[in-house]
Amino acid sequence: MYDSKLIIVVPCYNEQEMLDYTTQELLAVVDRLRRGGKIGEGKILYVDDGSRDATWSIIERLTRAHEAVCGLKLAHNVGHQCALWAGLEWASLHGDVSISIDADLQDDTQAIDEMVDFYNQGTDIVYGVRRERRTDSAFKRQTALMFYRLVRRLGEEIVYNHADFRLMSRRAMRALMAYPERNMFLRGMVPRIGLSTACVYYDRKERMAGESKYPFSKMFALAMDGITSFSVRPLQWIYITGFVMVALAIVATIYCLIAYKFSAVVWGWTSIMISIWFIGGAMLVSLGIIGEYVGKIYREVKRRPRYFVEKLVDGEDEKVMGRDFEP
Ligand code: UDP
Ligand code: MG
After folding, report:
1. Which of the chain's ends, N or C, has fewer CB atoms near its CB within 10 Å?
2. Whose CA is nearest to atom 16 of ligand 1?
């Protein structure tokens, strides 16, 4: 028997068609987990991300009808990531463990049981990973694949095919809350926390009602955020290109001088060619140097935490800090 309090965090933006069904499903999940002795108490937290339809009035009605449902209304539309953050912040203060899931329940609620099992065995973060993406359009699939590859290339840890369906223990949530940055890409931030992690696999379903709130423009913005909120590699690439240019400039100079000596070249060509190559290289190297400083400033202004403690053992007592150990 476990007695932890689970909070299921559901960001909602214009989800009036989904909420009744979602509530029914999630209440069934909570009930199942409680009866199975996997959790002590379960709550569903809807975060209304400034919806313009009847979403909030439906949430209010649901909170009156079901004790396990509660709602948080954001004053305006701040986007999925920030809405989720708001929910997690609340959950870190009022619950022991959270699971974030989209309101359209495209992610399989059956996987929640497995996630909670992992949590009960001591895992802090459990990622829901899509087994395949049959329900997504070929375009979405391909762009997603390209994105994951690029992000990996940029040296970031990111869980492949994992969206924001994940379980987090309180200490994982508190650790996340210690990141004060405003440009957020949770999929990239959570793996940085460390702690013990696991993955559960599921098949992603089709959206039942309403339409995707992630049109291409928003998806692109999220992808850009995913890259620029983390990586300073693009800045370093300028540096490298600069050095390559300088190396090429040396080769070009040799070529130009040989051409000047042994064949009839137009008057002035040699000097112009050499200057073009050298100026190009010098500019890129200088930009790269500035980029290095910008990269440092960027890391500095994020004021990210330097470390999190996972455990502390104290000599013979083997005093291992509990799960509530403050990061
Ligand atoms: N969402 C949100 N704010 C937004 C856009 C979306 O809170 O500005 C929520 C939305 O209600 C849903 C989740 O984010 O619960 C994912 O959106 P959606 O299912 O439309 O994305 P897709 O599955 O198409 O990528
Ligand atoms: Mg969806």
Report:
1. N
2. 102
Q: In the prediction, which pLDDT does 320 show?
A: 47
Atom of ligand 1 nearest to the CA of 78: 8
pTM comes to: 0.81
- Mutating to test ligand 1, I would choose from 16, 46, 213 the residue with most ligand atoms within 8 A of its C-beta, which is 213
Concatenated DSSP letters of 66-132: -TTEEEEE-SS---HHHHHHHHHHHHHHH-SEEEE--TT--S-THHHHHHHHHHHTT-SEEEEEES-
213 in ligand 1 pocket by Cβ < 6 Å? yes
In this predicted structure, what is the pLDDT of residue 7? 96
What are 21-30's contacts with CB under 8 Å, separation 24+? 21/105, 21/208, 21/209, 22/103, 22/104, 22/105, 23/62, 23/66, 23/69, 25/105, 25/109, 26/101, 26/109, 27/66, 27/68, 27/69, 28/109, 29/109, 29/112, 29/113, 30/6, 30/68
The atom of ligand 1 lying closest to the CA of 77 is: 8
pLDDT digits (tens, 9 = 90+) for 99-135: 999 998 889 999 999 999 999 999 999 999 988 766 6
Phi, psi of 202 (to 5 degrees): -155, 165
Q: Token pair of 146, please? A: 């390209």
Helices (H) and strands (E) in the chain, counts: 10, 7
Which amino acid belongs to residue 214? Y
pLDDT of residue 270: 85
Report the pLDDT value the prediction gives residue 144, as an integer from 0 to 100. 81
Give the pLDDT mean for 269-298: 88
Domain ranges of the chain: 5-215+304-324, 233-302
Pick the CATH number of 5-215+304-324 from 3.30.70.970, 3.30.413.10, 3.90.550.10, 3.90.180.10: 3.90.550.10
